[in-house]
Specification:
This protein is about 35% helix and about 35% strand. It has about 220 residues and is of the alpha+beta class. The chain has 2 domains: about 100 residues, Topoisomerase I, domain 2; about 100 residues, no CATH class. It has 8 helices and 10 strands. The strands form 3 sheets. A 5-stranded mixed β-sheet has the order 7-6-10-9-8. A 3-stranded antiparallel β-sheet has the order 3-4-5, covered by helices on one side. A hairpin with a 5-residue loop joins strand 8 and strand 9. The mean pLDDT is about 85.
Amino acid sequence: MGDDVERKGLGTPATRADIIEKLVKDGFVKREKKQMIPTEDGMKLITVLPDVVKSPKLTADWENALSLVARGEYSMQAFMEGIEDMVRDMVQKYHAVSDEQKTMFAPGESEAMGKCPKCGADVVKGKFGPYCKGKCGMNFKQFKVVADDYEYGMSMNLTDTQLRNLFEGKKILVKGLKSKAGKVYDAYFIPLSIEEFSYTKDGKEIRGLQYKVKKEFAKNKK
């Protein structure tokens, strides 16, 4: 990175943090200890993006221009017209991609882990976990647990083997659960039925379907 680019700046720390979090969430970057490592999809994305978009100089130039606009030394209209011209030129130049580039991000056909208990469609592994190909709204991380004559909800990640057993109606052993008192224990989850769930997050109502399971305590080995 050139001194001129560094001097002009690359956004605020908050802006940079938001960009990094979005790259991680979308699967283009992963964290390894204190490092940010590009994923396979991230490397593919870099190969298909035009050089001008990948250059930090573009962001630095825009930051500098916006500073001039804020001080009244540059017209906002001229700034936006410049961006529009650049986008128009890029669309004309990169309006088509090669067949090789088209197949880069094509999702591979994942092996089915089992049948969805709600709609019967295949359940496959995706970037963010297992999902129903029938898109019926079934969630494989949310559970309504029945234990000791009361019910409570919980969210957890199960292994592929545990999920396959659930799809077959079998009970599964879940290890390392923690009680409210902080005691670690193991328990069996026995699938009972499917039911709806809903909750509010950031002012938005989230709805879906979840397993209703019965919990039985397992005898921990000494």
